[in-house]
Automatic annotation (TrEMBL):
It comes from Dokdonella ginsengisoli. This is Tetratricopeptide repeat protein. Residues 220-240 are annotated as: Disordered. Residues 1-25 form the signal peptide. Keywords: Signal.
Length: 240
């Protein structure tokens, strides 16, 4: 029987894999160099804050993880919204709050990603009628701030702003120019600008389509069983 902590572990594993988006999407091998670069992550705060949140969670620095996941959630990052839900359900770094947890997992399931929909339904069956009512009231508040209608606009603006900042003085230059980017290991490597500026990363429409391909059920499903009681030790040990 899969517990909520196993669901957390599954999402964290998926985040680790998708930190190299190209590998998860079947793209070329040098893509991890692109998505882990400082220049890329300045224009993609959803991934920057999501990855920081996952790192802090694994370090059991839960309060910092909550802050980073919430920052990513502002840019429509569904895995981060799901992690906030699970942390609220389990009481990791925050007071356990099933009403807030359900509201966040409902938001995470906005695009119909299978694992998040399944988790939402397991949460729902564990709530009382009064808790469900209050959760739906809170849900409306979250959608008004973090729902795709608003969050995607924020990220689209960041992508456009960073692209203009980096390319504005170089328009019209020949294709195939080399760019020097620091890799995850700190070493600087050269790639062609056509790899870095691939539209799947910088065209908002294509970037959102890429996220859908990564997180839809066909790209990796998490089957979730009934909600199980969890050990309260992490919450007691970490109210950071």
């Amino acid at each position: 029987m899969i517990t909520m902590r196993q669901v957390v572990a599954s999402i964290l594993l998926a985040i680790a894999v998708t930190a190299s988006v190209g590998a998860a999407a079947g793209e070329r091998d040098d893509d991890p160099l692109v998505v882990n670069s400082e220049a890329f992550q300045r224009g993609h705060p959803d991934m920057r804050w999501r990855n920081l949140g996952a790192t802090r969670y694994q370090q059991k620095r839960y309060r910092e993880a909550v802050r980073h996941f919430r920052d990513a959630a502002r840019y429509g990052d569904k895995p981060s919204q799901a992690m906030l839900a699970l942390m609220l359900w389990n009481g990791d770094g925050v007071e356990a709050d099933r009403v807030q947890a359900y509201a966040w997992i409902d938001l995470a399931a906005e695009r119909g990603y299978g694992s998040f929909v399944a988790t939402r339904e397991r949460f729902r069956t564990a709530l009382s009628e009064d808790e469900r009512r209050r959760a739906m009231e809170l849900r409306n508040e979250l959608y008004a701030k973090y729902g795709d209608e608003h969050a995607k606009k924020r990220l689209n603006l960041e992508m456009t702003r960073e692209k203009l900042k980096l390319t504005g003085s170089h328009l019209g230059r020949p294709k195939g120019v080399l760019m020097l980017l620091p890799g995850p290991d700190g070493r600087v490597r050269a790639i062609t600008d056509s790899v870095f500026w691939n539209p799947r990363y910088w065209s908002p429409q294509q970037y959102w389509a890429l996220q859908d391909r990564i997180w839809e059920p066909s790209k990796g499903r998490v089957d979730v069983g009934p909600v199980q009681p969890v050990d309260a030790e992490p919450a007691a040990a970490e109210k950071r």
